[in-house]
Amino acid sequence: PLRQADRAIDWRQDTTQAVLRKIRAADGFPGVRDTLNGREVYLHDAHAGDGLHGTPGTLLARCGPAVCRATRDGAVWIGHLRDPNGEHPFKLPATTVLAETCRALPEAEGYPEIRYEQHDGVGYLHFAFYNGAMDAGQCARLRQAFREARRRDTRVIVLMGGPDFWSNGMHLNRIEAADSPADESWRNINAIDDLAEDIISTDTHLTVAALQGNAGAGGVFLARAADRIWARRGVILSPHYRDMGNLHGSEFWTYLLPRCAGEANARQIARARLPMGTGEALALGLIDAAFGFDHGAFVSEVRERAQALAAAPERQRLLEEKNRRRAADEREKPLRSYREQELEEMRLNFYGFDPSYHVARYNFVYKVPKSRTPLTIARHRRKGPDAPLREVS
After folding, report:
1. Within 13 Å of residue 79, how many CA atoms lie on the same side as its CB?
2. Which of 227, 257, 293, 358 is 20 to 30 A from residue 83's alpha carbon, by CA?
3. Degrees to nearest 5, angle at CA 205 with 203 and 211
4. Contact yes or no for 276/217 (Cβ under 8 A)
5. Is residue 372 classed exposed, middle or buried when 0-12, 13-18 and 19+ CB atoms within 10 A define those classes?
6. Across the strands, what pairs with 359?
7. What's the order of all strands across the beta sheet hosting 165-167?
8. Where are the strands (E) in the chain, listed by range?
9. What single-letter DSSP state applies at residue 51?
10. Dihedral of the CA atoms 199, 200, 206, 212 (nearest 10)?
């Protein structure tokens, strides 16, 4: 096994590329052990700090959740840290773990969290949130970026997510570390709902969610808020919340799922509690197209399809049809009603007498193994009409 001594970074001697390789090779777990301001921490989520220089090993700047540290020939952004001896010994944004230190650091641009590009009538909004988790602040920043994208002279907006994850919904680590996890959960889900509502209500553009990477829980339904979902073949979707302590979920899923998949498929998706590939998601109506096995081929085809959609003679007709359907849906049942009903269930999850969500979140964040295999996988323990027959030896 590779030891921490083998991964150790020599900030005076290692190049930027060497530092990036070491951190990325250990990024999921365990990270690279290092010392920052006298604290032993594990480094995660590293990116090149282009254009920044300083005394090797020193902290230079902060940007969003990240801090920038100088290398021998440049600098690296470190987005997340894990302090094994701290109050919260799991991964958190670097600026949270080093809150006192970061107050003295200047702000700079460079950490690749949210960026926008525009070509041939199409706006591409990239958001590479670490592990796909989206806290309330990130949701608010992405919502602002989306609103700015709507004001551009474009006809189609493509929500690109990140190369590894599109979105996995609420940021459970940030919630677990909050003074009041219930309050932070409430703030987080409302921030995601605000973003989803803006996407659903967009009447000036056709919108596309382009899933380069996996999506789970609320992230799946946030993607479904767009007019179309295009997914890379090989992407895994986990469109359920229930295993997180019977969490009800929001992001307007009670409106979006039956609308795209039909009532029967919506019940099947919600009940299954299992991940699915793009073939099954396509058959159930959860996504609209799947193509391209590698990232390069997928992104290239996304651009071709989006530009063709922006230039299509029927684009205006498609936009008008979309707006007529949205207006008819609103008359039948306002979006606000779906949101209020979903959030009433979520309020019980967060503040009610049943602590299942808080226990499940704690176990997830602290990686506590389940005491037994969940029924969704252990088919032999299921009861009821859908249970398979037991084999008799």
Report:
1. 18
2. 358
3. 115
4. no
5. exposed
6. none
7. 165-167, 214-216, 237-238
8. 32-36, 39-48, 59-63, 66-70, 75-82, 92-93, 114-119, 122-127, 156-161, 165-167, 206-211, 214-216, 228-232, 237-238, 289-291
9. T
10. 60
**CA distance readout (Å), 376 to 216, 221, 242, 272, 283:** 16, 21, 11, 7, 21
- Residue found under tokens 């094994």: 84
Structure token pair of residue 260: 């795209």
User: Which 3 state secondary structure label does DSSP give 115?
Assistant: strand
pLDDT per residue, tens digit, the chain (393 aa), is: 889 999 999 999 999 999 999 999 999 899 999 999 889 999 999 999 999 999 999 999 999 999 999 999 999 999 999 999 999 999 999 999 999 999 999 999 999 899 999 999 999 999 999 999 999 999 999 999 999 999 999 999 999 999 999 999 999 999 999 999 999 999 999 999 999 999 999 999 999 999 999 999 999 999 999 999 999 999 999 998 888 999 999 999 999 999 999 999 999 888 877 899 999 999 999 999 999 989 999 999 999 999 999 999 999 999 999 999 999 999 999 999 999 999 999 999 999 999 999 999 999 999 998 877 777 777 777 776 555 443 333
Closest CA relative to residue 30, chosen from 1, 65, 69, 59 = 1
- Grouping H, G, I as helix, E, B as strand and the rest as coil, residue 370 is coil
Strand 122-127 to 165-167 pairing: unpaired
Tell me how far CA of residue 156 lies from CA of 71, 166, 320, in angstroms.
41, 18, 14
Whole-angstrom Cα distance, residue 17 to residue 73?
A: 9
Could you tell me if 254 and 263 are in contact, meaning their C-beta atoms sit under 8 angstroms apart? Answer: no
H or E element in which residue 186 lies: helix 181-200
Q: Tokens for 172?
A: 């459970």
| Residue whose token pair is 């895994």 | 236
